[in-house]
Write a structure and sequence with these properties.
Largest sheet: 4 strands, antiparallel
Radius of gyration: 22 Å
Number of helices: 4
Shape: globular
Strand order of the largest sheet: 2-1-3-4
Order of helices and strands: HHHEEEEEEEHEEEE
Number of domains: 3
Structural class: alpha+beta
Number of strands: 11
Length: about 220
């Protein structure tokens, strides 16, 4: 009986919406938009709550996570190494991880432990790395991040926490090319879109010409 009333109610609502659409298209579109927005807001909020409350306790790191967080403790000379460098070698079209800043120019990031957490500071030109550059951790700015390409969608926010540092440039082509290949074995296409729900439940859509610069706390700006 319950399912009968549920079905009947759904049918009536659909019929009413159809009739209303004929007479007031704009109103129906507004109602549908608000309903969709509310659903997205609820989903993102619940997912964020789950991650903060339960996932930290139950989540098991995958092999890529473990490999990414590994640090060389000392060299042959028994010199302590506190950071690693990953950079893109344009000449050979590949990414390399080293313990010394390369002489070559190229995109890359420096990885080190900050408050016992693995964090990465991004550089458009890794050769400009300065040992005095600060690793300033910011609050989680995004609840969801999704890659959309080839008519497919893939959530990609799981490993972004490594890069939540003030001044980092996220979602440009250099970052996405490495990030998607390393964790998801996905090749970045020429045409794609990044869909984001931020900490205030705002929806942002980035095209290939746009990227984000992280500011203080959980602030950010969209640039191009």
């Amino acid at each position: 009986m319950f399912f009968y009333y549920l079905f009947a109610s759904g049918t009536c609502m659909a019929t009413a919406a159809g009739l209303l659409y004929i007479y007031d298209k704009n109103k129906v579109e507004t109602l549908l938009y608000n309903a969709t927005w509310s659903a997205i807001t609820l989903y993102a909020t619940l997912e964020d709550f789950f991650e903060r409350t339960f996932k930290k306790k139950t989540h098991c790191k995958n092999d890529s996570d473990n490999e990414f967080e590994e640090f060389v403790e000392e060299k042959e000379e028994n010199v302590k190494i506190s950071e690693k460098i990953t950079y893109y070698d344009k000449e050979n079209d590949k990414y390399e991880t080293v313990i010394e800043i390369p002489d070559k120019d190229g995109w890359g990031f420096v990885k080190k432990k900050v408050d016992d957490k693995c964090k990465c500071l991004i550089y458009d030109n890794i050769s400009e790395r300065n040992e005095d550059d600060e690793f300033v951790i910011v609050d989680k700015p995004f609840l969801q991040v999704e890659l959309e390409q080839n008519e497919k969608k893939k959530e990609i926010h799981e490993h972004l926490h490594y890069f939540f540092l003030k001044g980092n440039k996220l979602f440009d082509k250099n970052f996405l090319k490495w990030y998607l290949k390393y964790w998801y074995q996905i090749d970045l296409e020429d045409n794609y879109k990044i869909n984001i729900i931020d900490h205030e439940i705002n929806i942002i859509n980035l095209d290939p010409t746009q990227y984000i610069i992280l500011g203080e706390k959980c602030n950010y700006s969209v640039e191009k």
